[in-house]
Amino acid sequence: MVALPLIQRHKTHRVQVGSVTIGGDAPVVVQSMTNTDTTDIANSVQQVKELADAGSEIVRLTVNTEAAAQAIPEIKNQLLKEGYITPLVGCFHYNGHRLLTDIPDCAAALDKYRINPGNVGFGEKRSQQFEMMIEKAIQYNKAVRIGVNWGSLDQDLAARLMDDNAKRPTPLPADNILREALIQSALDNAKLAESIGLRADQIILSCKVSRPPDLVAVYSELAHRSHYTLHLGLTEAGIGNKGVVATTAALSLLLQQGIGDTIRASLTPRPGESRTTEVTVCCEILQSLGLRAFTPQVTACPGCGRTTSTYFQALADQIQTYLQHQMAIWRTQYVGVENLKVAVMGCIVNGPGESKHADIGISLPGTGESPVAPVFIDGQKATTLRGDHIAEEFMALLNTYVKNRYGKAA
């Protein structure tokens, strides 16, 4: 049997963000961001809860006005009253130095500050305003993400590097210089924060771009040149399949190299689509790579001419949805249930084999096959289901299996 190599994580500092540890040998952390108006306290609280229930372990909120900053402590308090200890991150641009100074309750309530060096200030005020924000992080012992973005890069730095490149005998492509500018901006500002007094184990870096190849190139170099904790994510992944595929491609390549301590999928929701989609994508990426386990997984065949009925497709979807909903309850009752493997197969070709590989699986009859559905538990055929209530009977078997196997470990 061929042994798969273990993913060796890039060595980084451990950063504490509220109740969550990021970096070092801690599991890769999933985070997300609200898209509610932060001043709308009720909706913001509700969305944070939805994101946390979906698996987001850290949630970021926009803090762009005095009213938004004043809302943060109340949002935090309401979440705590309902039992949610999910760390909250304040996303600051342009006026963060003033908001953190003028509204100390906001500075104290947040668990991390997100600072974009390109949007801290301009000219002579830039260093002063950056220092003000770092000093508040030091005062309240908060973590800071220094987040550099392709779309809001420090123009003075970019122009200087471009000028230097133009003087080379053989100038490098402009994209190479912009990637270097991202890396230098992140590292220079991290060192500046340390010189002000922020500890290295309070700093998280991100260098976000919108193209997967650029993201891989930037983070590969950033990991080579530092041991700061790293946050991964495309800055604007896109909408629908494009956003999911781009995010998966970029993050998987880096995570497989051991690079990345916390991730986000910056997806554009379709109208009416839940914000939690971005959380689900991150959880699926980590679970598919074997780095984390969040919810039981359902193996299901894609269907073919042997499975012209949509019955097995409906059953697979029903069971996957059921498992995701049950996890809110099972997570507190059954230790290890997130590792459960279920198979819902559509015919005799691969059905019995895949069902045997799962903890519990069912092989539904394909076209022309006998209308029976053998169920396999822990690799052995346990029973055969027939008739019009196969779905309900299999769900009952599934519930019994979870209770018997994982209830003993609780």
UniProtKB/TrEMBL annotation:
Its Enzyme Commission number(s) read 1.17.7.3
Biochemical pathway: Isoprenoid biosynthesis; isopentenyl diphosphate biosynthesis via DXP pathway; isopentenyl diphosphate from 1-deoxy-D-xylulose 5-phosphate: step 5/6
Which Gene3D superfamilies is this protein grouped with?
Dihydropteroate synthase-like (3.20.20.20), Sulfite Reductase Hemoprotein, domain 1 (3.30.413.10)
Q: How many cofactor units bind, and how?
A: Binds 1 [4Fe-4S] cluster.
Q: What does this protein do?
A: Converts 2C-methyl-D-erythritol 2,4-cyclodiphosphate (ME-2,4cPP) into 1-hydroxy-2-methyl-2-(E)-butenyl 4-diphosphate.
Q: Which residues bind [4Fe-4S] cluster?
A: C301, C304, C347, E354
Q: Name one GO biological process term.
A: isopentenyl diphosphate biosynthetic process, methylerythritol 4-phosphate pathway
* Domain IspG C-terminal intervals: 298-398
The family line of this record is: Belongs to the IspG family.
This chain's source organism reads Candidatus Odyssella acanthamoebae
Question: Which HAMAP family does this entry report, sorted A to Z?
Answer: IspG
Q: One Pfam match, by short name?
A: GcpE_C
EC main group: oxidoreductase
> Residues in domain IspG TIM-barrel?
12-282
Cofactor annotation: [4Fe-4S] cluster
What name has this protein been given in UniProt? 4-hydroxy-3-methylbut-2-en-1-yl diphosphate synthase (flavodoxin)
Q: Which GO terms describe its molecular function?
A: 4 iron, 4 sulfur cluster binding; 4-hydroxy-3-methylbut-2-en-1-yl diphosphate synthase activity (ferredoxin); 4-hydroxy-3-methylbut-2-enyl-diphosphate synthase activity (flavodoxin); iron ion binding
Q: Which InterPro entries match?
A: Dihydropteroate_synth-like_sf, IspG_bac, IspG_bac-typ, IspG_C, IspG_TIM, NO2/SO3_Rdtase_4Fe4S_sf
Per the record, what are the reactions this protein catalyses?
A: (2E)-4-hydroxy-3-methylbut-2-enyl diphosphate + oxidized [flavodoxin] + H2O + 2 H(+) = 2-C-methyl-D-erythritol 2,4-cyclic diphosphate + reduced [flavodoxin]
**Keywords in UniProt for this one?**
4Fe-4S, Iron, Iron-sulfur, Isoprene biosynthesis, Metal-binding, Oxidoreductase
In terms of superkingdom, the source organism counts as Bacteria
